[in-house]
Amino acid sequence: MQVLVIGAGVVGLAVARTAALRGHDVIVAEATAGVGNGISSRNSEVIHGGIYYPTGSLRARHSTRGRRLLYEFCASHGVAHNKCGKFIVATDAAELAKVETLLAQGHKNGVEGLEPIGGNAARALEPELSCIGALVSPESGVIDSHGYMLALWGELEDRGGGIAFETPVERMSFAEARWQVRFGGRDAGIAAFDAVVNSAGLGAQALARRIEGYPADKVPPLILAKGNYFAFAGRPVFSRLIYPTPVDGGLGVHVTLDLAGRMRFGPDVEWIDRESYTVDPRRADAFYDRIRSYWPGLPAGSLVPDYCGIRPKLSGRGQPAADFMIAGEAAHGLPRLVNLFGIESPGLTASLSLAEEVADSLAA
Ligand SMILES: Cc1cc2nc3c(=O)[nH]c(=O)nc-3n(C[C@H](O)[C@H](O)[C@H](O)COP(=O)(O)OP(=O)(O)OC[C@H]3O[C@@H](n4cnc5c(N)ncnc54)[C@H](O)[C@@H]3O)c2cc1C
Question: What is the pTM (predicted TM-score) of this model?
Answer without folding.
Answer: 0.97
